[in-house]
């Protein structure tokens, strides 16, 4: 049973699905299992239910939206409230345009309750196999559970397991070395010299947070200079542009973005030249642009110093940078991303590519694994939450077609 904080003024954007009879094709003892109770899993469970298909969400944490409750305190969505809501329940206007982390957590909890989703918390799925008769999927889960489903949707998250590079000498570093996943706020870093490693959205925001929290010195180690965009320009959110250009040719979008980027200050003198590769080309490779929430200003004022990438650590607390420089920060925050960690779950099914990403995504199940779906393993410039919602409906349609 999930405990919920009610949001009295939230209004459904679409009528909640009518309770429906479970069809013979999807009998009660063979539901569709949705692994993961994040936005992707919840939206897909809702879409399945709306089509009369019994869906059971299996979540390893003790609550839905667990990944959001772990994010750092100052986090706001960089996609708009309206385009970040899940199907069937609007986010209340009082959340503002850029929703806070806490409101997002409340919303997901409310969503699970309002949509009357069937959710099992505290159960981790460790392995998925085809049933012996080949008609369904067998899930091995914590506590020795074995669950048999007619189909499975894997929604375990793109940001599943924090990734910390195997820097040589890492263990010799006497200061604090923390992955961004464990960073909450800048308080413990006040008055200290901090190195943030990695300039993605998380690294950029943490660097600014550290400055505002009174860190004595903040450096940001950058290997590949990202594209930086304003979160909104004259009230027009960057996400809207991302949606509009999504289907245009990559080269054309790159050129449009190059022109738009000229409205941003040139930070070359501060160590952030404009990238050579186009924005959309990079986004298609998985490197989404960094939305400016104060970094540009902080870099221009010298409050965040850009330094070369980290190569390793040396005795005496030194960090070795790619240009040969040695620096001695008190603390390092590694905003170095996450891995999908799908190998143990489905690696044996031959459904992953060499980067560990699913070969088929959304409504397309891998040819050799009919009934096995993946959602949330892309990084679209139009906003992941928006795409998760679109994929939820498509996956539910595909499941409905698949069931006899
Ligand atoms: C810091 C940050 C900010 C972001 N901001 C935005 C934004 O502003 N707008 C936007 O559109 N996107 C944003 N994203 C990207 C994306 O929308 C979110 O990561 C979103 O939570 C993805 O939803 P998901 O359901 O795919 O994965 P998650 O939210 O990660 O949910 C996966 C769930 O699966 C559970 N789980 C994992 N493995 C198992 C298992 N084996 N068995 C059972 N349960 C399991 C986890 O506990 C988790 O609850 C952000 C991402 C991050 C990291």
From TrEMBL:
Q: Which InterPro entries match?
A: Auxin_biosynth/cation_transpt (IPR050982), FAD/NAD-bd_sf (IPR036188)
Q: Which SUPFAM superfamilies match?
A: FAD/NAD(P)-binding domain
Q: Does the keyword Oxidoreductase apply?
A: yes
Cellular component terms per the entry's GO annotation: cytosol
Q: Which UniProt keywords apply?
A: Monooxygenase, Oxidoreductase
Query: Which Gene Ontology MF annotations are present?
Result: flavin adenine dinucleotide binding; monooxygenase activity
The protein's name is Monooxygenase
């Amino acid at each position: 049973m999930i405990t919920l904080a009610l949001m009295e003024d939230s209004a459904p954007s679409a009528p909640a699905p009518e309770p429906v009879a479970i069809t013979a094709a999807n009998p009660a003892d063979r539901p569709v299992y949705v692994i993961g109770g994040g936005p992707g899993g919840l939206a897909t469970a809702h879409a399945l239910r709306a089509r009369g298909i019994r869906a059971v969400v299996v979540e390893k944490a003790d609550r839905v939206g667990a990944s959001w409750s772990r994010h750092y305190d100052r986090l706001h969505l960089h996609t708009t409230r309206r385009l970040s809501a899940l199907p069937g329940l609007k986010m209340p206007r009082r959340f503002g345009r850029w929703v806070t982390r806490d409101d997002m957590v409340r919303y997901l909890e409310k969503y699970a309750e309002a949509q009357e989703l069937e959710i099992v918390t505290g159960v981790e799925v460790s392995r998925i196999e085809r049933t012996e008769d080949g008609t369904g999927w067998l899930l091995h889960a914590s506590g020795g559970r074995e669950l048999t489903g007619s189909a499975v949707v894997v929604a375990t998250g793109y940001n599943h397991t924090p990734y910390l590079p195997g820097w040589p000498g890492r263990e010799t570093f006497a200061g604090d070395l923390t992955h961004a996943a464990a960073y909450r706020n800048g308080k413990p870093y006040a008055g200290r010299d901090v190195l943030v490693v990695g300039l993605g959205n998380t690294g950029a925001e943490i660097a600014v947070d550290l400055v505002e929290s009174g860190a004595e010195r903040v450096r940001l180690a950058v290997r590949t200079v990202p594209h930086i965009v304003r979160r909104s320009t004259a009230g027009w959110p960057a996400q809207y542009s991302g949606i509009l250009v999504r289907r245009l040719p990559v080269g054309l979008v790159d050129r449009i973005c190059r022109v738009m980027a000229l409205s941003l200050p040139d930070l070359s003198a501060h160590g952030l030249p404009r990238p050579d590769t186009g924005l959309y080309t990079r986004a298609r490779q998985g490197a989404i642009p960094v939305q400016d929430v104060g970094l540009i200003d902080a870099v221009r004022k010298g409050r965040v110093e850009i330094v070369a990438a980290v190569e390793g650590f040396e005795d005496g607390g030194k960090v070795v940078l790619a240009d040969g420089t040695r620096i001695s920060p008190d603390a390092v925050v590694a905003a170095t991303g996450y891995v999908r960690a799908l190998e143990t779950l489905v690696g044996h099914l031959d459904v992953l590519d060499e980067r560990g990403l699913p070969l088929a995504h959304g409504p397309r199940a891998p040819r050799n694994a009919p009934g096995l779906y993946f959602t949330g393993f892309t990084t679209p410039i139009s906003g992941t939450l928006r795409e998760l919602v679109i994929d939820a409906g498509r996956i539910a349609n595909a499941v409905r077609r698949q069931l006899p």
